[in-house]
Structures are given as C-alpha cells and as structure tokens.
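To whoever is on call:

I kicked off a structure prediction for a single chain this morning and the downstream step that reads the tokens threw a length-mismatch warning. I double-checked the sequence; it's 154 residues and nothing unusual in it as far as I can see. Pasting both halves so you can look.
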Amino acid sequence: MTTGSHIFATLDLTPSTDSRLAELNEIGFNHLIGLSLLRWTEQDCLASLDIGPSHLNPAGLVHGGVFLTMLDVSLAMSGSYSQPPLYLMPGLTLNLNTQFIGAAKNDDIKVYATARKTGGGRSVFFASGEVFTPDGRILASATGTFKPGRQPSS
C-alpha cells in the first residue's frame, strides 16, 4: 500500500512461542547490536531492534548497515527452521540484494524485519523481506540466496 511518498507493509507482529529463540537473542552479533528474534517458523522470521544512539549515522538517521544486518539475519533464517528438539541454525548468505526505501530516526524507537522463504531446494533457498516501522512504513527491502543452516555433527 502507498500513502503519499511512503510505502506501507501489512503487519503481523505475532511472536513465536519457541523458547529456543531466547538463547539466540543472548549471543553473538545479534546480541551486540540489540537485534531480537521474535518469531522463526517454517514460514517466516520476524526480528526487532530498539533504536538507540549507537544505531545512528552522523545525520541522525538509522545507519543503512543496521537495516542490511536485520535483512541478512531474517532472510537467512527464513529457510532454515528446524522443529524441536533440533537446534535453530541460521542459513549462510550467498547473495543479498538490498533496496533502501525510507529513513528512520531515533524518534521511531523501534524497527522490525520480516522475511519469508520464496523458493529453492535442499541445498539452496531464496528469500525476500522488509524492514519497517511499527506503523508499517517500509524502510528497506531485500531478496537473497542462501544455504540452509546445518545441524551440528554429533
């Protein structure tokens, strides 16, 4: 949907009940930048980030690399879900095409990323997704090619 110069997304911010997400939110790069995984299912992935001063560029806007990271993480996860008791293992990015559509400021407080698997097979999958504000204003979109995550060797 388009209103004026803004493009809006249809929002589904329903979180997952998968307790394995809490562990992933406490480790690594996602934790370092404050990216929280809210939902990861066989159909999609949803992540959020509370905007803070460390996410802003010198112009006072959220740095494009923040949006790129959110898209990379959510798209790579969208085609790599495993049912419990298996581990949740993100996919590996082979290619990521990103379009920056709008800007976010510190006043926007929070941004979300959503992604869904759009095709592929056992060894490679394709995904698309968007970063958006709580009111649905799309800030960036991406498509990519990924290798599914693999379970650790026993």
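Update from on-call: the warning came from a stale cache, not from the record. Cleared it. Sanity check on the structure: The CA atoms of residues 7 and 72 lie 21 Å apart.
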